[in-house]
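Format notes (please read before filing issues)

Several people have asked whether sequences and structure tokens are stored in separate files. They are not. Every record keeps both together, in the order shown below: the sequence lines, then the token lines. Line labels are part of the format and must not be stripped during preprocessing.
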Amino acid sequence: MNKPLSTRLRLGVATIAIAAGLPAIASAQTAPAASTEQSYAIEEITVTARRRQEAMQEVPLAVTAMGAEELRTQLITDLSQVASQVPSFTFQAQNALESEMFIRGVGSARLNSATADPSIGTFLDEIYIGRRGAATPPIFDLERIEVLRGPQGTIFGKNVVGGAINMISAKPSQEFDAGGSVALGNYSSINAEAFVSVPVNEKIGVRLAVLHEKNDGYAENLVRNEKMEDIDSTAVRGVLAWELTPNLNLTMTADYSKSDSGGSARHAVDDPNVPGFGFITPNLPSQDPRTNFSPYEQYANRETSGVSARMEWELGNMSLIYLAGLRNGEGNVRWTQAGVGSPPSITDSTLTQYEKYTGITQELRLQSDPDKRLRWATGLYYLNEKVKRSSRNTAISFLPGGPGSTRDTLDGDNQYVASSTTNSYGIFGDLEYDLMPNLTLSVGGRYTTDEKELRSRAEILSLGKPGDLFSPAPLKEEYDINPSQDWSEFTPRVGLQWKATDDILVYGSYSTGYKGGGWQGAAPDAIAANKSYDPEHATSWEVGVKADWLNGRLRTNLAAFRTDFEDLQVELLDDVSLTLVVANAADAVIQGLEFEVKARATSWLTLSASGSLIDAEYEEYIDPLRGTDYSGHRIQRTPEYQYSVGADVNLPINDKLNFIAAGNYSYQDMMFWGPESTNREAGYGQMNGRIGVASEDGRWSLTVWGRNMGDTLYRTSVIPFVGDEVSLFGAPKTYGVRLAVRY
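Then the structure lines:
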């Protein structure tokens, strides 16, 4: 299938526009600005996207950063609330244990195997978190969040193929500091956050932060009269910063979180691809999408904890960094796949799932003085992960039929129990050399070895009715297996950056990434369970321009990229076995354009816009289950375009009081839920905002806030099922008031 002409034209024009503008950049000069303009230049954010502190505009790669105040005022506590403001980033969720993040068309639909690796890496204070659902704490008291787009296969911790989310905790300050906020809203919601930072002496500082989030839920199980889509969560974090000697610094962090919920409320709607064919939708007691009809109690509970230590030793023109971390996560969920009992569903399949994660990170890194003409970093990396996972399927079908019938295959009780151990080793190096004062060449590489071992067993707990012959799909027979395998990969990177002026950076790069192989999470028999799928490999080319204009009042960042995939891991729904199967697509190509623009229109008004245009398709992809040719189909979970526009106001009313307001509208185009390019999510937009007053010195603020103010109905997950789309819907309109204070 050829690319749509409009897509090819837009990508071509955008790429040519960037290339054509480069020769003129060298001579571009910003006219001197008046002193009044200098006072409201756009604030620069320092990031560690390359494992050292740099101004974001000096980093030659596509990265978006959100600072502490931005995260607090928007009440952001989860990465799903970040995605809409980052180009090429989409976020969905199958359930509380299976978050689905995609960046530039690359992601993992579900991590239902104990050996599966996410395509998007999540890091907290440089420590890798391998299970996004079970082990990631809520977002609170962070200095910033960085979203890196594209393969990160050289120096950035664990080798990741699609991008990285880097969360950095706020550190102790040299002076006493404290603050907090309370936000109240509809659905009896409470969001309360507080922190205190205390300098113990000139060499030691500590910081303690706490978050409590609660709401009564916006969905209900009408059969059991129980609230769903609710949350009751508490999290704490402590940070110690200690200057052991003038050349030796230690930072230690510990955190804990616990959350409980009535679980995800699935609700079936008619599948537009086969309208009127479904069993469930026309027979539901209510068509309200915020209702669920399962006879079982459902829940989603999670507990996380972690400790980390970072020691940095200055050795003249070098520094030695030792990093160690432990991440723990434990999750329990129960959810009904059809959202309703049987009847009207042809089967009432309820999954009870458990996952426990332990990850231990060790890293030793030696790096040079960042101010020298030749700069380098090299190091050793080790990650040990242990995952325990179980999934129990309890199914009852109302269909007629005796032993051996369709009803028999949809009736009964079975479970999969798996435990895995992964040892990942890496050796990496990165070198930068200033060919000229304004032209820098960088090269790097990483050699990674992943050793994986799986112990997996499948148990038939009940065949269903007396005389039944079959276990509920997909399990056909019990098994107990113990496969192991290792994979190795070298991932190089080459980059060139040109500082055209003091305010304009032009860069180009070639980078590679790798994601390890594994085994299926729910296989029908021992033969299928023992068969591994292969790693996937990414090769990416990127060119970009980062520029500040008008004395720092206007910022324009552009990036164009192309990523070629080999053996792309794709999640497929096996219609026969009714299970998700991971298979390697032969080839895939993703190319696109991203932009981020910010402008200080006046001293009190800031405007912003960002977005992406992506052409992503499978090439030479034959479905191994059905033999269907998906070549040319659009890659799942990837809208052709998405954008976000916003405005922020901070206008003095008098010498003690300011009027504050902010609004952000985000939109994502239609996307397909699977590689079949049938079930789709229509394009939709959301409006978030706040308005209020604040003290001129920033000591307090009082705002009224709203999210999804147009009450847009959209979905975060879809399971196609015999003419129905069993759907999980995103949050409705929420609103409230927030009071924040600062010492």
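For reference, the curators noted about this record: The chain is about 5% helix and 60% strand. The first helix runs from residue 5 to 25.
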